[in-house]
Amino acid sequence: MQEIIDATIKALEDMKRAGVTHVEVSRKTLEELGRPEAMVGAASPPRPAQNRGGDAAPTSGMAELAVIEARAKACTKCRELAGCRHSVVFGVGDPHAELMFIGEAPGYDEDMKGEPFVGRAGQLLTKIILAMGFQREEVYIANVLKCRPPENRVPEPEEVANCLPFLLSQIELVKPKVIVALGATALRALLDVQLGITKMRGNWYTFREIPIMPTFHPAYLLRNPPAKADVWRDMQAVVKKLGREVPKK
Fold first, then answer.
1. I need a surface site. Which of 122, 207, 233, 234 has the fewest CB within 10 A?
2. Is a pLDDT exceeding 50 seen at residue 25?
3. 110 within 8 A of 216, measured Cβ to Cβ
């Protein structure tokens, strides 16, 4: 219990230094704090949300995401992944982002740093986000799996099932206007479809009333540079869906 109290105090102190003056915590969050699995592990403080003017915005999302992150860090359902992980890679970005990117699983760089999409594929994703007219801090980025599979293998169905509740909680709390599913694993986890990403990318689907745009994973683009043109067309559609002007490339 003391670990959760200490982690909460630290998170609130970080928010105060960042300029946050008010945090609303829902009854659901308080109930989550009382759950046994939330008593193990400490959540790293989420980054403060930024409004479009650049000032820190009051948010309940940070506190609630911190509770879910603490539970993810204590999770050992996938014994193989829990036994070899260096970090639990939860998610990063604005907890009230209108745009959310969901990938497959952490790689080596992400596992070492504890942040999603920071390796070569992550650097490419950042370039894509900037080309769309966003800053990386304005969107929310997560993976289906929070732990790195050995040798970056494709996640097993049981691993996806074990980790999916964390992702669903992130989606519920962030409430994005649009989700970009990066690759087949993310798409299948959300929509439970078996068609390949090549056939489904570029078309709109819906998950819990949220529009989803499937597209190729940045790691695939590193191996197949010509596919970047397809992804850019998909991202132009995303920008339009959000009611923004498509930047000229």
1. 233
2. no
3. no
